[in-house]
Amino acid sequence: MSNVLKKLEILAGAAKYDVSCASSGSNRSNSGKGLGNASPWGICHSFTEDGRCVSLLKIMFTNYCMYDCAYCLNRRSNDVPRTAFTVKEIVDLTIEFYRRNYIEGLFLSSGVVKSPDHTMSLLIRVAKELRTNHRYNGYIHLKSIPGASTELIREAGLYADRLSVNIEIPSEPNLKMLAPEKDYRSILTPMNSIHQGILVSKEDTRKFRSAPKFVPAGQSTQLIVGATPDTDNQILTLASGLYNHQDLKRVYYSGYIPINTNDSRLPVLSTPPLVRENRLYQSDWLMRFYFFRVDEIVNDRHPNLDLDIDPKLSYAIRNPWMFPVDVNKAPYELILRVPGIGVRSAKLILTSRRYGRISSYQLQKMGVVMKRAKYFITCNELGSSTINEIKPENMKQLFMPKKEIKKKDKHPGQLSFVFPD
Ligand code: SF4
Questions:
Q1: Can you tell me whether residue 141 is helix, strand or coil?
Q2: Among 76, 97, 157, 319, which one has the highest count of C-beta atoms within 10 angstroms of its own C-beta?
Q3: Is the dihedral of CA 105, 163, 223, 233 positive or negative?
Q4: Banded model confidence at residue 34, pLDDT cuts 50, 70, 90
Q5: Rounded CA gap, 241 and 94, in Å?
Q6: Residue 36 pLDDT exceeds 70
Q7: Residue 131's CB: how many other CB atoms inside 10 A?
Q8: Percentage of the chain with pLDDT > 70?
Q9: How far apart are CA 165 and CA 112, in angstroms?
Q10: What is the DSSP letter of 212?
Q11: CA neighbours within 13 Å on the CB side: how many for 420?
Q12: Which atom of ligand 1 is nearest to the CA of 71?
């Protein structure tokens, strides 16, 4: 195996735990008779500003790291094979893969070597070389190093399409416990610089069409779920603040993967909390597309998400006074709160009712999931009982999966991301 290929194996493998760009995560070996292997590392998928899905070469510059974050495979106290690419090696790999159409972009992160600024400069050199010497127009996602200076963050933003600064742990005291060398200031300061840079760039491009673009695909971050006792309320409140104040494009939630099992600061888990991770993604979706406030999904009285049912259904069952909603009269925002009605069908309802009263048959045709929605709506020709005629304690049972859940419990693989309608 060539030197670069060996490095690629180590440094693509080391990058797989960063979900701040999405990843396929599949692992399948060739039995010797088939075609190819699938690895959980290497090429992953992410989404651009205009919604396109792009395949990215996902690697670390180096997995040497001077920090010792408890949850990380690459922490300095772990005995793992270490290596580092050169700038030229990453540039050559990216160009070669791009030319062959294997990838549409690069996701580059790194362990911290010498200092945050030194590491950030290395990442910038790769992006700069690609953009200036090779006139590379593919997608670039750079991981910003916590603690890197504002000047370097500004420079990185001129070459990268997206920057991410990972918060990882959803509260500062717990971050200090698990990652003693990091603090919220070193994470939020670069995040703030990116946000300011994006605002200035938008203003500049309004005035001069040729003004250089700064991080055109925005910024994202990752939160690790389940490594600390932080509640879903804390996690979603933090995410909501980031969307509102830093204008983040995405917050990624990563169920804690028990890697360093002998570290007493970490909980003992046999598998990552994937159901919780999925419920957080569903809640995030509700905040971004369904006009839900975070305190409607979780709050002090209800600090954690219900793992049995999705958060939209959970909200509806906890707020029966709001239902049934008359689909022929209710405003868009209220129709969106009905379990079983998604953004597309809510828009269709609003358009269709201009032409006459809507029946349950028409709702079905529009894509409304009637077996969920029927308890929460009134419309023409709907004879079933609504939420107010069913005992509250029986409501949740109506939506609980029956036998299949036992099978899944035995083999809890990655859940598919089914977002609440
Ligand atoms: S700084 Fe990053 S690479 Fe280094 S130990 Fe912490 S999480 Fe791992």
A1: strand
A2: 157
A3: negative
A4: low
A5: 35
A6: no
A7: 16
A8: 86
A9: 13
A10: P
A11: 30
A12: 7
